[in-house]
Design brief:
Order of helices and strands of chain A: HHHEHEHEEH
Strand order of the largest sheet of chain B: 3-2-1-4-8-6-9
CATH superfamily of the domain at 34-286 in chain B: Spore Coat Polysaccharide Biosynthesis Protein SpsA, Chain A
Largest sheet of chain B: 7 strands, mixed
Shape of chain A: elongated
Distance between the termini of chain A: 92 Å
Largest interface: A-B, 43 and 44 residues
CATH architecture of the domain at 34-286 in chain B: Alpha-Beta Complex
Number of helices of chain A: 6
Oligomer: heterodimer
CATH class of the domain at 34-286 in chain B: Alpha Beta
Number of strands of chain A: 4
Order of helices and strands of chain B: HEHEHEHEEHEEHEHHEEHHHHH
Helix content of chain B: 40-55%
Strand content of chain B: 5-15%
């Protein structure tokens, strides 16, 4: 009687494969949905950036409406910043697939383009706004480095809340293997987590952040 | 894919397998789960009651043995294992009251297994019932258990062990645990995978016990060892779910911890002793040993991962606080509380709910009142905190094994 029931070992294995397989499948579907959502946001952002870029090109031809271009640029900065926050939330929850990592890379490229565009606008319209580029490690496993990045990020968020539209915040991962980004940051001789203010000043240490704050204060009072 | 999600998924796979395994057995046998065969003859039984400092409970244990009303009790052998209290005097008084009582007084401490082996030599019954001196067999226990011996392949029969008078919170948690263990053991009965016939009450065919040379005095859990040995020797072990033996559960955390450590150490000793049969020799090598090893491995790896994650989190929080204070940024932010659940979180929740349902189903089948004020708190506590302590005990047991500490009293 007992021996005849041993088929249950195989039946349980079959049931487990079914349930487990279904769970993993649903997990992949969920992560794909999230990835698609990010992809849609990216498409929107890409369009907006193209629009802004075209405006910048127009500025080259004509001396029209610098104010409008700056406004659009700052608005785009805010928009892309919100997108990235959502992307990071999904990234942390992405365990089975790597689609979202590629989305992150696309956003990094988009933000790099945005940075270049901001530089061009500044060249044409003057320093009406300040850019803070936050260069961080996406793949860092070091607890000290990760927490340093977290504090940098919180600091920048505070700055953004404080200065609002006078500041454009551009976080870019510097270790995603994208050549254009590597080429760009090579100019600044940067190896660690850093903030670049207005393409001139580089801040890499936690102690330096007070100096950065002072510089921003000064420029505002000027 | 990172290594941690892979480990999580492996845990989930094993958990789903075990849950499916038990549920499949239950659903295909639910009609016979409480049934027991009728005895083909009136087997004679010798009761063996090893006692060490059991002055408080011995008399009640003996009373319960005789109250089982089994007609063919050959003898009740009380083995006093150098008790330092009045156990021997109480045993003598009981012997005056019950003519079938025999007393063996060890001059030096032999331990439980040694005491049982001494009694086994003089036992005259065809069957031998081992009863701990702090445990009380139910009135119908012997009559219901004995029928399983009609099958000549059966070498041992066990029954559920329940906690006597679980009044305190801690005792109620153990009561839940004992019921889950008992029910799961009955399910394992259907695949010939019972791996222990616990000490509070187990009946053995004397011939089978003698065949394996009695109990192993070098093992801290002679009941697990004997069961493995019987399995190895080809004897079937069966369980009667329709009766019980009540026992005294540890009242304090320390004594509970020591008891569990002893169980774990005994299990490790068994694994070591029978290691060459892993993957061979029927259910012992194919299921019981891998089941033990997997449990131990998963517990230890789980604890390792938990410690790593917990440690990392603490260090991370420390660094974040330190850096935040240096820069003057907020230590806590609203975003820090926002969690986007991953698929692993969802799977974990589903698995927890399944485990909870499994526990509730067991308790309801065993006629436990679930919707009481106490159980609403006890069951979730048992499912989370109580079960989480298991790996810590295992670590401690391994440490003791390495250090060569084997004392258990």
């Amino acid at each position: 009687m007992l021996k005849s029931q041993r088929h249950v070992f195989w039946e349980a294995l079959f049931v487990t494969f079914l349930i487990f397989g279904l769970g993993v499948f649903l997990g992949v579907v969920l992560e794909n949905l999230r990835s698609e959502k990010i992809s849609d946001l990216y498409t929107q952002s890409e369009l907006t950036l193209l629009d802004i870029k075209v405006q910048t090109q127009i500025l080259n031809l004509d001396d029209l409406n610098c104010g409008e271009a700056i406004k659009k640029n700052i608005e785009f900065g805010d928009l892309i910043y919100e997108d990235v926050k959502k992307l990071e939330k999904y990234e942390k929850a992405s365990k089975l697939t790597e689609y979202i990592v590629n989305e992150h890379k696309r956003y990094d490229l988009l933000r790099t383009l945005f940075w270049i565009n901001s530089i061009k606008i500044k060249e044409k319209c003057g320093n009406e706004f300040q850019t803070l580029v936050f260069l961080y490690d996406y793949n860092s496993k070091d607890l000290g480095e990760k927490n340093k990045q977290e504090v940098f990020s919180r600091f920048l968020m505070e700055i953004k809340h404080l200065y609002g539209n006078e500041i454009i915040l551009i976080p870019i991962a510097k270790d995603t293997g994208l050549l254009s980004i590597e080429l760009l940051i090579k100019n600044y001789n940067i190896n660690e987590t850093s903030i670049i203010l207005n393409e001139k000043h580089v801040f890499t240490k936690l102690d330096d952040l007070k100096e950065l704050e002072e510089m921003l204060n000064q420029s505002q009072s000027n | 894919m990172e290594i941690l999600p892979i480990i999580y998924l492996a845990y989930m796979f094993v958990s789903i397998y075990m849950l499916s395994f038990f549920l499949l057995i239950y659903f295909s046998n639910r009609k016979t789960i409480f049934s027991y065969p009728k005895a083909d003859k009136n087997y004679s039984i010798s009761f063996l009651v090893p006692a060490y400092n059991e002055e408080k409970t011995l008399a009640d244990t003996i009373k319960h043995i005789f109250e089982t009303g089994y007609e063919n009790i050959k003898e009740v052998i009380i083995i006093n294992d150098t008790s330092k209290d009045n156990t021997l005097e109480i045993a003598k008084k009981l012997a005056k009251k019950y003519s079938k009582i025999k007393i063996l007084n060890n001059l030096k401490n032999l331990g439980k297994a040694g005491s049982l082996n001494r009694a086994l030599k003089i036992a005259k019954g065809e069957l031998v019932a081992v009863v701990d001196a702090d445990s009380y067999p139910a009135k119908d226990s012997i009559k219901k258990m004995i029928g399983f011996f009609s099958d000549s392949k059966v070498g041992a029969v066990t029954c559920p062990v329940v906690v006597r008078n679980p009044k305190s919170f801690f005792a109620r948690l153990q009561a839940i645990e004992y019921k889950v263990i008992a029910f799961s053991r009955k399910l394992l009965d259907y695949v010939d995978a019972i791996y222990v016939t616990p000490g509070p009450l187990a009946i053995y065919r004397k011939k089978a016990l003698e065949g394996i040379g009695g109990f192993d005095a070098n093992n801290l859990t002679e009941d697990i060892e004997a069961t493995w040995h019987l399995t190895y020797a080809g004897w079937e072990r069966r369980m009667c779910l329709d009766t019980m033996v009540s026992t005294t559960a540890p009242k304090k955390l320390k004594s509970w911890f020591i008891q569990r450590r002893r169980w774990n150490l005994g299990g490790l000793q068994c694994l070591y002793k029978y290691r060459k049969y892993l993957g061979k020799k029927g259910m012992l090598g194919w299921f019981i040993m891998p089941f033990f090893i997997l449990n131990t491995f998963l517990g230890l790896v789980g604890l390792g991962i938990f410690s790593y994650l917990f440690g990392s989190r603490i260090i991370s929080k420390f660094l974040l606080t330190k850096y935040s204070l240096l820069v003057g940024t907020p230590i806590v932010t609203f975003e820090g509380f926002y969690l986007t659940p991953s698929v692993l979180n969802y799977l974990g929740i589903v698995l927890f709910i399944c485990g909870l349902i499994y526990t509730l189903v067991i308790l309801s089948i065993l006629k436990e009142k679930i919707l009481t004020k106490e159980n609403i708190l006890n069951i979730p506590f048992y499912m989370t905190i109580y079960l989480m302590v298991y790996p810590f005990i295992m670590i401690n047991a391994i440490w003791h094994a390495i250090k060569g500490k084997r004392q258990w009293r």
